[in-house]
Design brief:
Number of strands: 3
Strand order of the largest sheet: 1-2-3
Distance between the termini: 58 Å
Structural class: mainly alpha
Number of domains: 2
Radius of gyration: 21 Å
Largest sheet: 3 strands, antiparallel
Order of helices and strands: EEEHHHHHH
Number of helices: 6
Length: 142
């Protein structure tokens, strides 16, 4: 009798490849984004996902489908303890500088290193207010 897998499932497809899937912490059945050549590869992928969940590092694969603008506005709204002047600053910086550059991009693409570097370069060459430049210089970002 085969031993029951403690996490996830692997099945052999007619193509002789293996498909892995697991139940995510959000209760949704999550398939691997690709199939695997060997059962061992599928098992290793499942082990990685199990570790991510156990360590609290799991990221919802559908989260990247949200646009940067939607994510950014929600991020600002989720900070209820900001002083009115800080909230006004965040909203204006987002509206004037971040949303026009990154707004329509899916969040997963807007955080890629080439996109961030290019966006930052465009912001620094454009008319970015001194307050923002000073804030990013002070935070150690370059």
């Amino acid at each position: 009798m085969a031993k029951k897998r403690p996490f996830g499932r692997v099945r052999k497809l007619p193509s002789m490849r293996y498909q892995a899937r697991y139940l995510g912490p959000d209760g949704i059945d999550r398939p691997a984004p690709e199939t695997f050549r060997t059962k061992r590869d599928a098992d290793d992928w499942l082990a990685q996902k199990q570790t991510e969940i156990g360590q609290g590092e799991w990221v919802d694969p559908d989260a990247g489908n949200v646009t940067f603008e939607t994510f950014g506005r929600a991020w600002i709204d989720e900070r209820p303890n900001l002083r009115p002047s800080t909230l006004q600053l965040y909203n204006s910086l987002f509206r004037l500088h971040l949303a026009p550059t990154f707004g329509r991009l899916p969040r997963r693409k807007s955080t890629s290193p080439p996109c961030v570097a290019g966006g930052r370069r465009a912001l620094m060459l454009g008319s970015v207010n001194r307050r923002w430049r000073r804030a990013t210089a002070y935070s150690g970002r370059s």
